[in-house]
Design brief:
alpha/beta, globular, Rossmann fold, seven-stranded mixed sheet
Length: 298
C-alpha cells in the first residue's frame, strides 16, 4: 500500500486497524519490530523501546513495547497535576504519570484504537486507579476542553498522525497557560528510501510517517510554544532482516552508506502565560539543548 496515493483518512484507518491488531501482540514481538508492524526481527530484540523497569509507577502488564523513549521521566510532573497522554495504548505512561501526580492529580489517556482503550481500562480497574481515565478519540481533535492540563506526554505516536501541526495546535489548546509537554517521537535527518517512505505498513511502524527533525521542531515553535528543548536523542537502526522486506541489496547498501538517519527524540516545550511555572528540564547529557530562535529560551 503506497502512502502517497492514500488520503489522510485512509492512512488513519490503516493505522487504527493495525493498532487494534498490535494490542493483542506480545511486548517482545512489538519491541523486536518497528512499533509492532511489519513483522519481528530475528537479529535485534529491541529496535526502539527504552527500559521502563526501574521507573516508579511502571506496570509491566501495561507495557506493549511500542515506545521510543521515556517521556514521563523527563516531564517534570508535580503532585496534583492533570496529565494527558496522547496515544495511551494499554496505559503504560499513564500509570507512570499517576505515580508522579499522586492521588490528588488526574491522568487522562486518549487513544483511537478501541482494543487499546479496553485493555487500558481493564488495567486501571485491576490496579484500582480511580483517577486514571481513558477516552476514545482522535488526538487531532481531542475530546478535552481547553486549558485543562498541566502536562502533556506522548510516546512514539505523533509520527503516526498525518497532520502533525494540528496535533501540536491541539496540545497548545488543552494545556493551561504555563503548562508544558514532553514528547518522545521518531524523526528523520535526510530522506528515507522511497520503498520505505511509500509503504503503509512502515507508516504504521512509526518510520514512514516520521518527518524531518528540523520541520518537527519548527512546527512546535510556530504553534507558539516557548523553551523548546531537546531532552534526549538516540539513533534508530532498522535491522537488515526487516529492511530486506522493502529494499533490494543495492538499495540497502546505498541506505547504509547515505547521510539519512532515523532518530528518537524527546522534546520539551512550554505554553506561555501568566501562570507559567518554573520547570527544571532534564536535557541530553552528550548534546547541547536545542533552543529555537525566537523561543525566548536563549
Amino acid at each position: 500500500m503506497n502512502t502517497e496515493t492514500h488520503s489522510p483518512e485512509t492512512l488513519k484507518a490503516t493505522v487504527k486497524a493495525k493498532y487494534n491488531e498490535i494490542s493483542q501482540q506480545s511486548a517482545a514481538f512489538n519491541a523486536s519490530s518497528c512499533c509492532g508492524a511489519g513483522g519481528a526481527s530475528n537479529e535485534v530484540y529491541n529496535i526502539m523501546t527504552d527500559d521502563y523497569s526501574s521507573i516508579q509507577g511502571y506496570q509491566k502488564d501495561a507495557d506493549l513495547g511500542l515506545g521510543c523513549g521515556l517521556p514521563t521521566q523527563f516531564a517534570s510532573i508535580k503532585e496534583g497535576d492533570t496529565v494527558i497522554d496522547l496515544g495511551s495504548g494499554a496505559g503504560n505512561d499513564c500509570f507512570v504519570a499517576r505515580h508522579e501526580t499522586g492521588s490528588e492529580g488526574k491522568v487522562l489517556g486518549i487513544d483511537f484504537a478501541e482494543s487499546m482503550i479496553t485493555k487500558a481500562r481493564t488495567n486501571a480497574e485491576t490496579l484500582g486507579f480511580n483517577n486514571v481515565e481513558f477516552r476514545y478519540g482522535d488526538i487531532e481533535e481531542m475530546p478535552v476542553s481547553a486549558n485543562v492540563a498541566n502536562v502533556v506526554v506522548s510516546n512514539c505516536v505523533l509520527n503516526l498522525v498525518p497532520d502533525k501541526q494540528k496535533v501540536f495546535s491541539e496540545i497548545y489548546r488543552v494545556l493551561k497557560p504555563g503548562g508544558h509537554f514532553s514528547i518522545s517521537d521518531v524523526v528523520l535527518m535526510g530522506d528515507l528510501p522511497e520503498a520505505l517512505r511509500n509503504d503503509a505498513e512502515m507508516y504504521a511502524g512509526c518510520v514512514a510517517g516520521a518527518i524531518q527533525k528540523k520541520t518537527y521542531l519548527r512546527f512546535i515553535k510556530e504553534c507558539g510554544f516557548e523553551n523548546v528543548t531537546l531532552q534526549k536523542e538516540k539513533p534508530i537502526t532498522i535491522p537488515d532482516d526487516i529492511l530486506r522486506r522493502y529494499l533490494s541489496e543495492d538499495e540497502m547498501v546505498a541506505f547504509a552508506e547515505g547521510s539519512s538517519g532515523i532518530f528518537s527524540i524527546t522534546v520539551f516545550a512550554q505554553k506561555p502565560g501568566a501562570a507559567m511555572r518554573e520547570v527544571v528540564t532534564k536535557s541530553m547529557e552528550d548534546t547541547a539543548s536545542v533552543c529555537l530562535p525566537g523561543s525566548g529560551c536563549c
